[in-house]
Amino acid sequence: MNRELESLDAVFREMPDLKVEHTGPRRTRIQVEADALPTLLELLKGRAGYLHLSAISCVDWPDTEEFELVYHLWSYQVSNLISAHTRIPYDPGRYVSVYDLHAPAVYFERDIHEMFGVWFEGCPDQEPFILTEWQGPPPMRKSFDTVAYVNDTFEWREYQPEWANDPSGGKG
Amino acid sequence: MSTDPNQAVACRTVDAEERSLLGRVLDRIADHCRARSLFVLHYCTGCGAIELPPTMTSRFDLERVGMQPMVTPRQADILLITGYLSVKTLKRVVMTYEQMQGPKYVIGLGSCTINGGMYWNSYATIKLLDRYIPVDNYIAGCMPRPEAIQQVFLDLMGRIDRGEAQAWKDYYRRYDWYLGQQQQLFGTNWQAPTDVVGEAIRYRLVGEQTLGSHTAHLERYAPYYDQLGIIRPEPARMKARPQLEVVSR
Amino acid sequence: MNDLDLLLLVSIGTTAVLFAFGTWRWAGALGTLLYALQLALLAVMRPELPLASGIGFEVLGYRLQWSLSGLGWFFAIITVASALFSAWFAAGEWGQHRRNLRLLHGGLALNVTAMLILLASDDLISLFIGWELVSWASYLAMVQRGGPAMDAAYRYLVYALAGALAVLVAIAMIAAQSPALDFGSVRVWFASAGNGTIWTVMLLTMAGFGVKMGLLPLHLWQPAAYSESPGPIAAFLGAISSRMGLFAIIVVLAQLIGLERLGNLPVAFSFWNANEFWAWLAALTLIVPTFIALTQNDARMLLAWHGIGQGGYMLLGILIATPLGVSGGLMHVINYACYQAALFLAVTAVAHRTGTTDLDHLGGLINRMPLTYVTMLFCIIGLAGLPPMNGFVSKWMIYKALLDAQMPLLFVAAVIGTLGTILSVYKLIHNTFLGQLRLEHAQVNEVPISMWLPMILLALIVFITGWMPGLFLDLVDEAVVAIGITQLPHHLGGVDLGNGGLDMLWIVGVLLAAIGIGAIVYFLGNRSVRVGQFDNYAGGQILTADVPYQYSHQFYAGLLRVIQPWMRGGMAWGERALVSGADFLGGAMSGLYRAAPAGAYLLLAVLAALAVTLL
Amino acid sequence: MDFTHLFVELVLMPLIAFLVGLVMVLMLRKVRAKIERRIGPPLLQPLYDIVKLYSKKTQVSHGPMHEIAMMVALGGVIAMEVFLPVPGLNGLAEKGDLIVLIYLMMIPSLGLALGVGACANPNGSIGISRALTAMVAYDIPLMIVVAGVALFHGTTSLPEIIAAQQAGGMSTWGIVQTPVLALGGLIAAYAMLGKEPFEIYVAPAEIATGPMVEMSGKFMGTLFVMQCFQLYAVGVLYTTLFLGGGEYWISFLPKIFAVVFIPLAMTNVFPRYKTEDVLKWMWKWAGGFALAGLALVVMK
């Protein structure tokens, strides 16, 4: 078993400024710089068999005006889940696409673009996917106030209080 | 012209009072059979679809009252919306509703269709189903049990039998209002493949509000204005939508 | 100068006139009138059949003479009628667009003349002369559009000449033993000939004439040749040209050898007799092409493949040798000519408007070309052999004859052929007229009256004679009597046999009445509203014009997955093997010649001749 | 043949066919319900469905061919009934024989195929191509059976076949004298009904009820009426060929209901075959039995 872990540590040794933290028996958390992430993915894929990119998630940090992209990778060889965290600033909100390394990335990036507005350079398709009729700003940002939007856009059902005690709505 | 659909009961094409005795007998038979043979198309939008199998099959067996599940809207009488509706799904629901034929009924299953349910604060779900398509019955509950569903079906059958369930005509008579509501969500160039106003004219179900400022947006309905002798109003200005924050490309 | 001479004269005159004035605007109309004249002459000639012609001459001791028997007359009627409709179609707006129609009109007239000479032949040599003339005339007809048409016509010519050589050898064998070559004495000679000689002569003649008719191993040339020739010519060729082969086969099998003799001619080491052998070959010819037609993606190829298949029905009908079977087979000839010509014309009309006959890029033309649709609808029902149309009557007679003659397996083979036909004709009309109207065909409009009138007339003939088959059965009686089979008792509505008859007057009448009831029941319901083709159920998807969603490619995918392994083109492989073998031999021979000087061979040849004469 | 008597027959036979067909559709749904331990629909349910469909207020048609096709399909089915002899009513059975009847059965499917094609819906076109493939699957064994029966009785006219079978009471029934042929015929009749294992063209899960995808209101009503006629026709045809036709209605009705009951009882426990499997299965089993039966008939 340690031979596989050995290959994983070889990767970590090769990239100096990684902050690796084994958070569980088969879970590893890596904090990596934005520009170093693609090389990390390539190394993991080549050396340690991390073929499976199961998801890319995005966390919005409004106070430091940063997006945190988390790449969840799994290797059947090492059977260890890596979540690589990286931070990108708000204003350009652009990052490079890892589509050429992992094909499923196109849908995760498309989703993040739709929900957070991050533009992934090189991603083949970033058209609206779920919110096809949406005209507003990217809704999952913490800056977007859903309740205000809902109150502004939709009307509510007006209730007569006496319905409470006569559920058939007066028809008996 | 009152907006209550139940008053103007125009059966075939002539108002009820002028119908001959034979016409009234035929309609009585038709309503009798219509109530006892309802084909259900359940549009599994959300979590409610799982309530239908027990209702249809051996545990509660709706075939006892002549109801059959049907696959396409063309053959269905009842459209069962079973769960929350996102804006994208609503567009398909409206298309499906318009493809359904003749006396059609909509039953909203679950509180999500009544007031948005537990997704009330979501930007994507709609809150009031009857703003977009006329709804006959609502079943409160998250998710209601088959007994409740059966209860509503029996109530609807009774109203059909008495010839009261005419909400579907409301869609033709106040199409402009419905279209306005839909355009608020889908944008002003939204149009389903079905030519609703043409059908309204064909079946003499044109009301005061069939054509109005909202239908003026759509070029396809332009010829109907002069056909019905209505001057084409200036297209209604849509409510200002939240400004589109340009994402840097 | 009796009527037959007059007919031949008029026919040759028509050829000359049409070749001379081929490019004239009204050449088509002139041709139509002349064919009408020939048709009138044929009709006048009917009472005095068999009519001996005045022309006749001696050549090297063999008497060549021409006389029109009932059989020849029957085929002549179809030939001239098909030519009439083709010329009428070409005279219309279709012709105005083409620049030089001299070859088309002249070729058509030449074909008719050659066929009349063949049909009127009364002895083997005139039959052979007529046969060669028909071969060359149809080569001229096929070759007009150049390019692939040239290759297809060239391939046909190779087949036809090989076949003609086989027939020539057969005639030579007969001439060696029989005193004269006219049909009468040849029949006498056949009666006394031994089984071996009859088998060799029969095989040679069937090989020769089978080429033109498209019997199974010799059919590969026909689809390409008929679909590459220009529209009206394809209609004429499809309708009648391959039936010349059938005429010659009937002359040989029925009139010369005689169907009873055929019945007791044993096939070597098997319990079959010759009649069953040819019947099973006809059954194979019936099944294989119809299922190949199923896989075709081009409308004209599909129809051409059906041409071969339907030929199998006719031969099968005749080989049953009972009055019902023979008249069924012969009626199928005239029925088939009607709807095949109309189908080819309809496909030409579609090609005229949309520019293509590729079934994968057509669809939804019913709204744009309703009259062409009606023509194709009537004629595919006829081709499939379903009740209201005449195709059903002849197929029913063949089935009933097969059952009465205790041949159930042949009956099942015929039914399999019919099922294949029903499937492929539905694919034809579905991919062309039904389904989604393509964006590029949105502005297509109906063909002018000059083009749809002949088609609609043919479709009406198909329906009328389906309702009253007696009309065609009278014509068929002439041919049946000429073959020497007792005439089938029939009435206007059909046939009344002891064990289950057919009365189309009642069947079609009840069908139309029932459709009337269906209409009444239909109009009980409330009015319906006509919607466009995009107001369709597509699972919540919005259908748009630019996205082709028509299901037409691989139309019977399920069926094809089952029968595809059986259709590996065995015969096409055989043909290729033959061609490569001939190539190899040619190469070897030319190598031999180039190796030694020509003079040496001349010397050798002279010495060999000298040795032979001396010994 | 006096025309009044014939006219009464021509009117009466389709009506009887429709009523008996309604009861058969009811039996179909009741049997399915009982197998699924349900109560099943009320007695008049098929009639309610048809009246409801015909009384729909709005209907959609895709052009004149779609409407004419419905009339032709219904007309073809009604015309077929007139050639099916039933006790007391021979109709036009002398005018057209067994082969005419089999071909008249193909007219409704072709008429329906043209109408569905005019609807320009891909689901419908796929459904029709599967329906015609299924027709190839069951028609070959059916025709072998028809050949066997015609050969055995030496005639193809239905009244004579019935008379031949009724000559010696039960012992001369087709099923008794040619049992293997009768078995092949039963399997072919099963597939002709187009029920479960062979129901590749309605297939609600795959192609949204195939040909019926664009049928609303009276179009769907016509299809329901055709289903009644089809069940009745299969029942009567099989009874005519193998169960000695009908002398009296009391003995005739149980026979046709038994014939239709066997497939309906089995249909609810089967999944749906793929198109290729339908072809292979039908040609292997139904074709095999039919050919064996034919061989027996020919050898006799």
Task: Characterise the protein shown here.
The complex is a heterotetramer of chains A (172), B (249), C (615) and D (300). By secondary structure, chain A is of the alpha/beta class. Chain A has a single domain (2-165), classed as NADH:ubiquinone oxidoreductase Nqo5 subunit (Beta Polymerase, domain 2). Chain A is 26% helix and 27% strand. In chain A, strand 3 (52-61) and strand 4 form a beta hairpin. In chain A, helix 1 runs antiparallel to helix 2. Among the domains of chain C are: 271-545, no CATH class; 570-614. In chain C, strands 3-4-5 form a three-stranded antiparallel β-sheet. In chain C, a hairpin with a 2-residue loop joins strand 3 and strand 4 (494-495). Chain D has one domain (3-299). Chain D starts with a helix and ends with a helix. Helices cover 72% and strands 1% of the residues of chain D. Classes of the chains: A alpha/beta (172), B alpha/beta (249), C mainly alpha (615), D mainly alpha (300). At the C-D interface, helix 16, helix 17, helix 18, strand 5 and helix 21 of C face strand 1, helix 3, helix 4, helix 5 and helix 10 of D.
Present the secondary structure layout.
The complex is a heterotetramer of chains A (172), B (249), C (615) and D (300).
Chain B: H1 21-36, E1 39-43, H2 52-56, E2 68-69, E3 78-82, H3 87-99, E4 105-109, H4 111-115, E5 137-139, H5 146-161, H6 167-173, H7 175-186, H8 196-202, H9 222-227
Parallel strand pairs in B: 1-2, 1-3, 3-4, 4-5
Chain C: H1 3-20, H2 27-45, E1 51-59, E2 62-68, H3 70-91, H4 93-97, H5 102-119, H6 124-142, H7 148-177, H8 183-192, H9 195-213, H10 221-228, H11 231-257, H12 259-263, H13 274-294, H14 299-319, H15 323-354, H16 370-384, H17 390-404, H18 408-433, H19 449-467, H20 470-483, E3 490-491, E4 494-495, E5 502-503, H21 504-524, E6 528-530, H22 557-563, H23 570-595, H24 598-614
Antiparallel strand pairs in C: 1-2, 3-4, 4-5
Helix pairs in contact in C: 1-2, 1-5, 2-3, 3-5, 3-11, 3-15, 3-19, 3-20, 5-6, 5-11, 6-7, 6-11, 7-9, 7-10, 9-11, 10-14, 11-14, 11-15, 13-14, 13-18, 14-15, 14-18, 15-16, 15-17, 15-19, 15-20, 16-18, 16-19, 17-18, 17-19
Chain D: H1 3-35, H2 45-54, E1 59-61, H3 64-82, H4 98-118, H5 122-153, H6 158-166, H7 174-177, H8 179-193, H9 204-207, H10 217-242, H11 249-267, H12 275-299
Helix pairs in contact in D: 1-3, 1-10, 1-11, 2-10, 3-4, 3-10, 4-5, 5-8, 5-12, 8-10, 8-11, 8-12, 10-11
